[in-house]
Amino acid sequence: MRIGELAARTGVSERSLRYYEQQGLLVSDRTPGGHREYPERAVDRVIRVQELYAAGLHSAKIAQILPCMRDEDGGPSVRATPALVTELVTERDRIDRMIDDLVRSREVLDEVIETASGRVAP
């Protein structure tokens, strides 16, 4: 599929897809006319990259992680190094702290909403 179709199917801009390719996160072939051609599995790859970005990881870290992740055609092609596993545990702990902070913020907002609407919190 061409870059426009991949962008439409994933909701990711063509510019971002080009960036992913520059960073080694996505691979395309080129037509004789120089257009990018992506395999069907690129849709899953782009979605996975988006999920990792949403988790707060940067492109260099994502490039390290992707070969260690299970793809639709089987297991990972590379095992994560102990150092990478340690870094990923640190990232997971950071995400857990963010989740805890968000839950506390939601609880505060719930209290304000209840107070503002004249209800008393249980």
Strand residues, percent: under 5%
Largest beta sheet: strand ordering = 1-2
Pairing-aware structural class of the strands and helices? mainly alpha
User: What distance separates the N and C termini?
Assistant: 55 Å
CATH architecture of the largest domain: Orthogonal Bundle
Mean pLDDT: 89
Rg is 20 Å
Tell me the name of the CATH class of the largest domain: Mainly Alpha
Shape: flat
Unreliable runs: none
Proportion of residues in helical segments: 55-70%
Q: Biggest sheet, in brief?
A: 2 strands, antiparallel
How would you characterize the overall build of this protein?
The protein has 122 residues and is mostly helical. Helix content is 59%, strand content 3%. Strands 1-2 form a two-stranded antiparallel sheet. Strand 1 and strand 2 form a beta hairpin. It is flat and about 70 Å long. The mean pLDDT is 89. It comes from Streptomyces racemochromogenes.
In terms of topology, how is this protein built?
Layout: H1 3-10, H2 14-22, E1 29-30, E2 36-37, H3 42-54, H4 59-65, H5 82-116
Antiparallel strand pairs: 1-2
